[in-house]
Specification:
Helix content: 25-40%
Structural class: alpha/beta
Oligomer: single chain
Distance between the termini: 45 Å
Length: 194
C-alpha cells in the first residue's frame, strides 16, 4: 500500500527508494543513505496519499541530496559483515568467518589468521562491524607506530602520539604541530590509505 503510493510519485528509476515503517515516528521523514539510496520513513497510520504528496514536495531536496550521496559514495562495496565476505589487510585477502568460539590457535576475536580467514564472534552485524573496525584500528596503530618512528627521528619530533581514524576520501594522514594547534600534543592520523 505504502510502496504503491511511493511508485505513483514518479521518481527517477535509477533512485533506489524504499518505504520504512517506523512505529515511533509521528511525522514522515526522508533519509538519504551513502550511495544515494532513499528511505521514506513512515508512521504506521499515515494516509498513503500523504506519502505521494510529501515525496513530491521534497523532490528538489531529494535530487540534490541523492546527487551528493552518489558522488561521495565509496569506490568499494559497502560491507554487510556476513560470513564469507572478503576483507583486505596490507594487500592480503581474508574471508570473514563468524564463529561461536575461537578456533584452535586463535587467542582472541576478532583476528586475522594465517589461514586466510578473519575470525570474528557471531553476533549482530552492527557489533561485528564495530569489532572489525576496532581490529583494523589496532593493526593500523601498530603499523603507524612502527613506520612513524623514522619520521619522528628525521623531523626531530619527540614523543609523537598517534591516532587511527577515518579521514574521509581526501586524506591518508595528518600531522598536527603543537605550535599550530594550541593545547594539543602532536598527532599523526592514518586515514583510509588512499
Amino acid at each position: 500500500m505504502f510502496q504503491a503510493a511511493l511508485d505513483s510519485a514518479s521518481l527517477p528509476a535509477e533512485w533506489h527508494v524504499e518505504v520504512a515503517i517506523r512505529p515511533r515516528r509521528r511525522r514522515l521523514g526522508l533519509q538519504v543513505k551513502p550511495g544515494g539510496a532513499v528511505l521514506v520513513l513512515v508512521p504506521p497510520t499515515t494516509d498513503p496519499r500523504h506519502i505521494t504528496w510529501f515525496v513530491t514536495c521534497k523532490r528538489r531536496w531529494l535530487t540534490e541530496k541523492v546527487k551528493i550521496a552518489t558522488e561521495l559514495a565509496p569506490d568499494h562495496s559497502i560491507k554487510e559483515f556476513v560470513d564469507g565476505e572478503e576483507f583486505y589487510l596490507f594487500g592480503i585477502s581474508y574471508q570473514l568467518r563468524l564463529v561461536d568460539h575461537a578456533p584452535a590457535g586463535i587467542e582472541q576475536l576478532p583476528m586475522f589468521a594465517p589461514d586466510g580467514n578473519l575470525y570474528c564472534r557471531r553476533q549482530r552485524p552492527v557489533q561485528v562491524r564495530r569489532a572489525i573496525i576496532g581490529l583494523y584500528q589496532q593493526v593500523g596503530l601498530q603499523w603507524i607506530r612502527r613506520h612513524g618512528r623514522r619520521y619522528e627521528l628525521d623531523g626531530a619530533i619527540p614523543d609523537l602520539a598517534y591516532v587511527v581514524r577515518d579521514l574521509g576520501r581526501s586524506h591518508w594522514g595528518l600531522y598536527y604541530n603543537p605550535a599550530q594547534a594550541p593545547g594539543r600534543r602532536a598527532l599523526g592520523l592514518l586515514g583510509n590509505g588512499r
